[in-house]
Every structure is written in C-alpha cells, then in structure tokens.
Design brief:
Length: about 240
C-alpha cells in the first residue's frame, strides 16, 4: 500500500493540485487546513475520482502551540508531508503595517518551519519519511519589490537545507521546492511572463517526481536557475539602484 500523504495548506491551489497528483498515484491523503470541513467537496471528489481514502484535519500553521497535538491526532503518521502553506501579502502594505509584515513572515517561515520541525522529529524517530517544503526563488536575493515575503522564504529555504543535512543519515528525505511564478489565486491580476510561470499542476508533478527520485532541490521551471544566478551576480552597488 502507498504511504499516506499529509498536505498542509490543502485549501491552496497548489495544495489541491498536489492532492490530486498523489491520489492519482494511489496514495491515501490527509488534507489539513483552516476550516477543514469546508474541504468536504474536495475530499469526496478526490476519493471518488481516484479511489483512495481521504481524511480532513483542522490545522492552523500560525497556531504553533497546537502543532504537536495536531500531529499526534492524525489517524496515522504520514509517510510524506507536503507543506503548501504561504502568504504573499502586498509589499506596500507590509511597509506601512508592521502587523501585516509579521503575518507574511510568520506564514512563510515560522508556521511552516514549526510544523515541519514537529514532523521531522517523528519521522526521525521512525527512521523514514519525506518532508516537502514549498519555498520560493524570491528568497535567493532581497529585492525592493517583495523583500518581506522574500526574507521569510529565504529563512524557510535555509531551514529546509539544514533539516536535510541533519536528517540525511536518519532515513528522512527533505525536499525544497522553488516554483517561481505560479498562476494561482494568490497571483491573480499580476502580469506574469508565460515562460517563467508554472501552473499548480506543474508544481504538483514536480513534487511527486522529486519524492520518487530522491531529489533535494527542485526548480519547477529550470529557467529560474539561470534567472536567479544572473540576479545574484549583480554587484550590490548596481543592484541597489535597480527596481526588479
């Protein structure tokens, strides 16, 4: 039987796509989100369409004090956990409203890192499992256009890297996913360049392949490796005058 897959942030477009991808491959699912009961139509659809067991679980990434109890309350410890939790926010609002900035930071770093840390300890004790964190290329260099979001993703990327290093000899695989632009509700209204923009289904397929093949860091659109390498190479004295 295929390992159960826990999807954290299952209400997001990427979370839903990941659910369908793993269910199509025969994995039972544990869908976790705030107001989880509202995912009942998704649960019924996935279960009927793919013929797998699907359970719903109430989860708030920012309620970090509840994370231990959340994991303990799952029907079984998953074999794979995918964290699709995140909040882009608006840079302009984050600059004016510190509370808004902190929410973006907590949603993209503290909450995701906190729940994966709890799962990491359980997986390590068992000696197996895969943890998948969806981070962002925005964390590879701070830019005026999105540095609040990018700084949180930078922290999450570093956390995943360190966690992978720690657990590599403990039977636990840690995957960092760097999607670049993704056409979701979160980016609706943004003018996204087609060649650099993935669909949620592209992200889901890349995650499933990475888990199966044991890959560590995944750029959903490989062109982002070149784009970010070029951005990182710009000298600071020039970069600070740019708006990119």
């Amino acid at each position: 039987m295929r390992a159960p897959v826990l999807i954290l942030g299952a209400r997001s477009d990427i979370g839903r796509a990941v659910a369908h991808e793993f269910a199509a491959r025969g994995h039972p699912l544990q869908l976790a989100a705030r107001d989880a009961a509202g995912l009942e139509p998704d649960r019924a659809d996935i279960s009927l369409r793919h013929g797998v067991a699907v359970t719903l679980h109430e989860f708030d990434a920012l309620a970090t004090a509840t994370h231990d109890a959340f994991v303990a309350g799952l029907p079984e410890l998953p074999g794979i956990a995918v964290c699709a939790v995140g909040l882009m926010g608006r840079q302009e609002e984050s600059e004016r409203d510190i509370a808004a900035a902190l929410r973006v930071m907590r949603s993209n770093y503290e909450g995701p890192a906190g729940i994966l840390a709890v799962l990491a300890n359980r997986f390590e004790a068992r000696g197996s499992g895969t943890l998948v964190g969806i981070s962002s290329v925005a964390g590879e260099r701070g830019r005026a256009a999105n540095y609040v979001y990018g700084s949180a993703k930078a922290g999450f990327t570093a956390f995943l890297s360190g966690l992978r290093n720690r657990l590599a000899r403990r039977g636990v695989h840690v995957v960092t996913v760097l999607p670049g632009f993704v056409a979701t509700r979160m980016t609706e209204g943004m003018a996204l360049p087609p060649r650099l923009t993935a669909q949620p289904q592209d992200v889901a397929r890349a995650i499933a392949r990475a888990v199966e093949r044991g890959r560590d860091v995944v750029h959903v659109r490989p062109v982002w490796r070149l784009v970010m390498a070029a951005i990182r190479a710009i000298p600071e004295r020039i970069f600070k005058r740019m708006r990119i």
